[in-house]
Amino acid sequence: MAQIINFDEAKDKKDNEKVNKIEKERCNDILKNLKEKREDFNTSVITTTAEDILKALGFYNKKIATPIVKIAKAFEVKSYIVDQNDNNIEGQLFINGTTKNLYGQDKVIIVNKKNDSYFNRFIVARQLGAFLFNFKEKNGYKDKKNVFIDRYYSNQYCKEYERFATEILMPLNMFAKQYTVGAEELHYRIFVVKYLSCYFEVPEYLVERRINELTN
């Protein structure tokens, strides 16, 4: 039986494939650039990397919360929500080993179902940071049998990963603008924090930290 071709759908599919190819090329360029700086991940490099990612994927200076799951996916890292056996584990990054058999691809970020969506967005950003700044393919991981794991536990702190999550979820220029809007309209800090938390879809404690960076 003959099949009717919907030309609009065919065009949309072709356009999407073209966009995905461009995004992949841009992500590969970012990864290549990072490989040359793996031993010196200072604040400037991390901030610039977050900004480069937002620009490369078309999310820079957009009046939307950073679509972090979509960004991770552009780097071929897919995110899943699961019930963790250990509730102290907030997030995990798995690469290689049996990951593909379990999840259908080599790189995944796992977040804890018990957490709210804002905190899990932060975890995805943090674990993407672990992939960008810690995963070293040259150190044995070109062999897909060798599994790479990064676990994020409650109250654990890594300044590089936290900095990346902050920069990509709350870009400073955009944050400063919205902070001014909130301060002028809402006056009280507690309401400003809630406003910014909702605007950027991040936990309030991250907003508090960002405000302190901005105002001190």
Structure characterization notes:
Helix content is 59%, strand content 11%. The protein is α+β, with helices and mostly antiparallel strands and 216 residues long. The protein has a four-stranded mixed sheet with strand order 1-3-2-4. Helix 2 (43-56) runs parallel beside helix 7 (159-169) and helix 8 (172-186) packs across helix 9 (189-200). The longest helix has 29 residues, at 7-35. It is globular and about 55 Å long. 29% of the residues are buried. The mean pLDDT is 86.
End-to-end distance, in Å?
A: 70 Å
Strands, count: 4
Residue share in helix = 55-70%
Mean pLDDT across residues: 86
Helix count?
Answer: 10
The radius of gyration is 19 Å
Helical/strand content category = alpha+beta
Biggest β-sheet description? 4 strands, mixed
Beta-strand content bin: 5-15%
Name the helix and strand elements from N-terminus to C-terminus, one letter apiece.
HHHEEHEHHEHHHH
Shape: globular
- In spatial order, strands of the major sheet run 1-3-2-4
Low-confidence stretches: none
Annotation keywords:
about 220 residues, 10 helices, 4 strands
Sequence-ordered SSE layout with sheet pairings:
Blueprint: H1 7-35, H2 43-56, H3 68-74, E1 78-82, E2 89-95, H4 99-103, E3 107-112, H5 117-134, H6 137-141, E4 148-153, H7 159-169, H8 172-186, H9 189-200, H10 204-215
Parallel strand pairs: 1-3
Antiparallel strand pairs: 2-3, 2-4
Q: Can you describe this structure in just a few lines?
A:
The chain has 216 residues and is α+β, with helices and mostly antiparallel strands. The chain has 10 helices and 4 strands. The chain is globular, with a radius of gyration of 19 Å.
